[in-house]
User: Which sequence fits this backbone?
């Protein structure tokens, strides 16, 4: 399950409520939570579905995945290892979709 977005929402609650610079803290809190929920809904139910829908674009050979994890882990450490697969998938989607014929993908 994806709990990171909800944890981020909960972390922002005390910061918004206890900040003395805001006059209507409750309104700002509701607005911030609604915006975060809206973004979560949009990305989880629209963007990710459209990406996975194009399954041929998302497939990567396991060796390419391991090499990307090793390379980006060497460059950026654990953060690079976490970001390596999304970056490689995005790179593949951008580079190969329009220029390579369907038979060679």
Assistant:
């Amino acid at each position: 399950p994806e709990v990171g977005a909800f944890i981020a929402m909960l972390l922002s609650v005390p910061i918004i409520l206890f900040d003395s610079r805001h006059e209507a803290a409750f309104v700002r809190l509701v607005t911030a939570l609604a915006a975060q929920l809206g973004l979560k809904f949009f990305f989880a139910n629209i963007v990710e579905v459209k990406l996975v829908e194009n399954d041929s674009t998302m497939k990567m050979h396991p060796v390419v995945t391991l090499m990307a994890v090793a390379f980006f882990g060497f460059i950026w450490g654990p953060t690079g290892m976490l970001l390596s697969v999304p970056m490689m998938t995005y790179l593949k989607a951008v580079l190969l979709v329009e220029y390579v014929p369907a038979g060679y993908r």
About this structure: The mean pLDDT is 83. The chain has five helices and no strands.
